[in-house]
Amino acid sequence: MNRRLLGSLVASLGVAGLVGCAVAQTAWTYPPAPRGDQVDEYHGVKVADPYRWLEDPDSPESQAWIKAENAVTHAYLDAVPQRSQIIERLTKLWDFEKFGSPSKEAGKYFYSYNTGLQNQSVLFVADSLGEKGRVLLDPNTLSADGTVALAGTAVSDDARYLAYGVADAGSDWNTWRVRDIASGKDTSDEIRWVKFSGASWTKDGRGFFYSRFDEPKEGEALRSSNFYQKLYFHELGTDQSSDVLVYHEPSEEKKDWGFYGGVTDDGKYLVIHVSIGTDPKNRVYVKELGTSDASHAAMGDLKVNKLLDAFDASYEFIGNDGPTFYFKTDLDTPRGRVIAINLNHPARADWKEIVPQSDATLTGVGYVGGKLHANYLRDARSEIKVFSSDGTFVRNVDLPGVGTAGGFGGKSTDTETFYTFTSFTAPPTIYRYDTTTGESTIYKQAKVDFDPDNFVTTQEFYTSKDGTRVPMFIVHKKGVKLDGTNPTLLYGYGGFNIPITPSFSVSNLVWMEMGGVYAVANIRGGGEYGEEWHQAGTKEQKQNVFDDFIGAGEYLISRKYTTPKKLAIMGGSNGGLLVGACLTQRPDLFGACLPIVGVLDMLRFHKFTIGHAWRSDYGAADGEGSTESQFKALYAYSPLHNVKKGTCYPPTMVMTADHDDRVVPAHSFKFAAALQWAQAPSCPNPVLIRIESKAGHGAGKPTAKIIEDSADRWTFLVRALDMHDAKP
Asked: Distance between CA 505 and CA 491 in Å, rounded?
């Protein structure tokens, strides 16, 4: 791209900014985005990629385009008079104490705490449950703007050391350090280039296991693909260069294998989970750890027992009683069960079924207090059942309503654990649970300045295109009339076996206070009904996900919650793909669209950072493991490749961040440019893109940025859905 073009991009700032300021708009002028002549061939089909130049976000051309696009977007948002009120209400509601569920090591309790509007929560340590304790680590001191966040913590068994990871500007790359808990001072230890890994200490506290990638080439950390993950052991007080390689797979065909190592509670074994991308199928290897006086180097020489080596199902390690290992698995049971495998008799004929599959979906199991605490989903709502280690049913854990419960962590010898309950209208409440008596008592309860009795939640079921019955939660203020006039926001995800369950959100609360209806569709591709539900929304079956979401919108209209002009859709990451696909397939059905950090170029997603890991859900258009049928399916729904010139697309605000190294911002850049090019000249609907600086895929975002992000979403919808009288 030549310098003259760069100059025209910069010059467009003033023009585009002025155009965007108008409250009434019949045509939009956007920053120029030249269409190149790049063409690729997939299975004999030639596909144009005119915005390939936007894949480099740091080029002068891209930087000028980003600046100009943000000027248009912020001018549009600044013209909405309610924006300041929305920010004020969000800030007021967000200002409540936030506690994290405690964990316990060597009699000390560790928990996170936020006074209300702190950018990052602070890690505390206390000698007893009733004490506030003292600050152990305050991430707010690590950067002036709150963009450095805690990415993970691990406390040694003797509670002497804390290993902690930090992420800068929302990046998936983490740097790990070690803090002496008594003094509050860091040691000299520093571990770099860690991604998608925690830390797991040896029983003696001498060091910890972690996984990392090789250091990327200069300037490629935010875009280059991540292959050849390796599992290491770091001995306390030594330089990272001397860390011992514990396990890896150096062959080309196994370059996308990932490894995570966790030490068992008794300290006798290292359990290595082996995965390929995001595929729920995994392998499990075991290393029997040596004595505490074993040499540092010996960690790499320990024999590997390839206990589960078929990639035939999901196996999640729960805990162990000596050589008896408990696993949650979906082998031959798509809704999940618990099995026991004895390391001395590992043949399948000797496996024991402890908790059989039920009619609900088993999502997780905690082995604490010598009992199995099983977390089930029934129509996307939590149920907790307790079993003895031999599978005998002990009790149900009574929950306070329809919502989501999570927790039940700890050691098998602990007599107490903690869990959190939340719902759409119930802020998180943390309960202390006595594993002996089964008694739950409130430990901490969030106090948000609103009345939950003013809102109502229902769960309704609708029929998708192929006859599949799909659940949907619908939440709104009491007294809403079903007259088709309500601004309605439909949210979905639909991928990677992840269930979307009821949870409290200050942001969504403000939306409902303004008169909005909030709906969550539990579409296929997620984990609400087990592995069959997940697989029905993957690869060549991915269109089912979009059909389910479109069906949810049609249902809301048919039940007179709303009309197409008042119906907005929103989703992030894989949910951003969902929104992008639905708005290109059914632009007539929606009044506004918010695709957030979305996977939008389905022919090239696997070429950046960790994108190759998503092939288990999406397939791939080319490269290893790809097929022609996968390409055809991807090409048929890829949002970027299904934008049609001359279409009147609904008002759309694409949202991304400049440091997103998971779903690289090129997806959003190219999609926004394509939509702006395609929008019919007579169409009055804006196509905007909001590009956040010093932010990533979403994790670790400071409170100030979260509030601003939420305010901009609702400001956009207030204008796009013509909500003149909306007041937060």
From this structure: 13
